[in-house]
Structure formats: structure tokens, C-alpha cells
Amino acid sequence: MHIGVPKEIKDHEYRVGITPAGVHALTQRGHRVSVQADAGARVGFSDADYQGAGANLAVSAREAYACDMVVKVKELQPPEYPLLKRKQILFTYLHLAPDPELLDCVLQAGIAAIGYETVTDSHGGLPLLAPMSRVAGRMSIQIGAWALQMNNGGSGVLIPGVPGVPAAKVVVIGAGASGSNAVQVAAGMGADVTVFDINIDRLAQLDAIYRGRVKTCYSTPLTLTQHVADADLVIGALLVPGKLAPKVLTRDSLRLMRKGSVLVDIAIDQGGVSETSRMTSHSDPLYVEEGVVHYCVPNIPAACARTATLALTQATLPYVVRLADHGLGALAGDSSFGAGLQAHAGHVTHQG
After folding, report:
1. 119-172 pLDDT per residue, tens
2. Which of 190, 238, 236, 231 is CA-nearest to residue 213?
3. How many angstroms separate the first and last alpha carbons of the chain?
4. What is the pLDDT of residues 211-265, one digit of tens each?
5. Predicted TM-score (pTM) of this structure
């Protein structure tokens, strides 16, 4: 199979879909790989590295897309829409639910669109989403600490506090991969952390890990509103695979927060957890609404793109190899991998 790896063009997106090691693994199996020039340059993979691993160098995005399968990181951007070709396999993060224009493009192109974010494993986990969820979760606390600074419109609260001054109150909404990693970093920094979820078993696991250093709370609208009102930093980390994230924070609940408090909405790539959330970018990441500083960047891990690329590609490569070897036949009889197929031949194939 001929596999194309384009350079990402989303704002400040430096990750790359396949590393030189991945190219080597594919070419050793007889596949052809075309990597767009400079696709991995910002994360330390030169064109010479890719060529040394057996890749052809694509001089343009059009050439990288002129392949049987395209492997990338982020959802298609408008300049990439015309580059798709019918019956092509696209393997990337898709996030179609909040973007009907992108969905229309995918359907009209007649491609097989497989989204990392809905591929499951035998336990119902999300093995291709989890690596980036971990990165985003860990980063969300350092981002929140930065946004809390006065020069960013924040309230001037230091997350760990100092002797005689209490630590920041951090509320994490969701105890999945991103939420639990946010909890880990916030607790490590000495914050006063409360995590919300509706999965009692998951809350029990966190309670056992942190032995009272982190508060766990079953999520109901009233209880969540009460805790958010008192928070310095709120992390939105909810996920319903394939679907829009539930809007658990109302505009009225944000009005109760102290001016300069911060919301980092990791779930923004699926629409966000708050009525006040709207997508921003690494170039212009912050805005203030209802007195609360919002950070709603959909590709948070791109800020630590070297780590994120290595974490992502070690998870995706086995799936890329299976698709290269067997085409869409790799999904046959494998409902976990098949859950990644979100659109095919002009039809939506994933209920979410």
C-alpha cells in the first residue's frame, strides 16, 4: 500500500503522523511511504531521517495526499478538503461531531474515515485517544497555573500556595485519562483538588491512590455548581466517545466564580463542557467571559509536540501496519478497531 504523511497545518500544530521508525517498519513490509517535506522537522525528525528510513519525500501536500491511505494527527483543515480522493483511507483524529462542515466534506469525498478517538480495545478503553488525553491532562494544570497569573487576566493565585497562604482550589470534571492525569499533576503541585465523575468505581480507584490527598465527588448539577463557585481553576475533562461533550457548566454557574478564576476546557475538541466555551488557538488561547479566563485550545498536546508525537505514534503504529497490510479488511471481525470507522463511502458509520 502507498501511505502518505502530510505536514500538519492546524495553528501551531507540530506533531507528525508517523516517525522514521514507523516508516522503517512499514517499508520493511513492502509498503511505500511518502512523507511531506519538513513534516517532522519541528519535533526533531529531518527529511534525511525519513529518507534514511526508506520514505519518499513529497514536495507538496497534494503529493502526500495522492496515496491509498493518509495518516496524520489532527482533523482536516479547509485547505486540505480538496486533496482527498474517493475510496482513500484517512486515519487521524476526526472530531466530526462539532464540525458539520468537515463531516460533509468527508461524506462527499467518499473516503473511509477512521478516527483515532473512537477506536476501542477489548476492555472498552480508547487506546489511541488515551496518550493525548494523558498529555493534555498533565499540561492542563501548568496551563491553568499560567492563566491564573495577573498578566493573563487571572486572579493571581499560586497553585501550591506558600506557608500561611492556602493552595489553589482545583476542580477536575471527569476522572478518565485526561482528568486523572490532571489530578496527578495538581495533587503533585500541592493544590486542593476535587475530582467529579459519575463512575463510582473510578472515584474509588482515585481515592485509594491518593489516600485523602484528593477529594472525590459524585457529579450532580447542584454539587458541581457549588464546588465550581469556590474554585480557582476548573478542568473540563469529560468525554463521550464520538459525541459532543455534555454541557455540565452553565453560564450562571460561571458567574458565581471569583473574577479571574480559570477554566481549561480539554473537551473543547468535542464541543466543550461549558456553555461559555468556544474554540481558541495556540496563537490566541485566552478570552474572558463572565469574569472567568477561558483556555479552549483543541490541540493542547501540540505545545509539547515531541513528547506527544512519540506517545501517539507508538500507540497508532500497530493499527497503521494492519491497515497497510489488509486495507479495510483489517476492520473485519474486529469490532474494537471497527469502532474507529466514522464514515465510509458517503455514509456515517458511527452512531456517536
Report:
1. 999 888 999 999 999 999 999 999 999 999 999 999 999 999 999 999 999 999
2. 190
3. 30
4. 999 999 999 999 999 999 999 999 999 988 888 999 999 999 999 999 999 999 9
5. 0.93
Cell numbers of 338, please? Answer: 471497527
Angle subtended by helix axes 305-326 and 20-27, to nearest 10: 10
Give the residue carrying C-alpha cell 472515584.
Answer: 203
Contact 14, 305 (CB under 8 A): yes
Amino acid at 265: D
Q: Is residue 95 among the annotated active site residues?
A: yes
Q: Is 161 exposed, middle or buried (0-12, 13-18, 19+ CB in 10 A)?
A: middle
Residue with cell 491497515: 323
Q: Which of 95, 227, 294, 350 is catalytic?
A: 95
Q: How many CA atoms lie within 13 A of 327 on its CB side?
A: 8
Cα–Cα distance, 215 to 58 (Å, whole number)? 52
Residue of 192, 197, 232, 269 with catalytic role: 269
Phi/psi class of residue 161: alpha, beta or left (left: φ > 0; alpha: ψ in -120 to 50)? left
Tell me the sheet residues that pair with 236. Answer: 173, 265
- Give the contacts of 9 (CB within 8 A, at least 6 positions apart): 61, 77, 79, 80
Cα–Cα dist 349/2, whole Å: 25
**Annotation marks residue 12 as catalytic:** no
Task: List, edge to edge, every strand of the sheet that includes 233-236.
Answer: 214-218, 192-197, 169-173, 233-236, 262-265, 292-295, 286-289
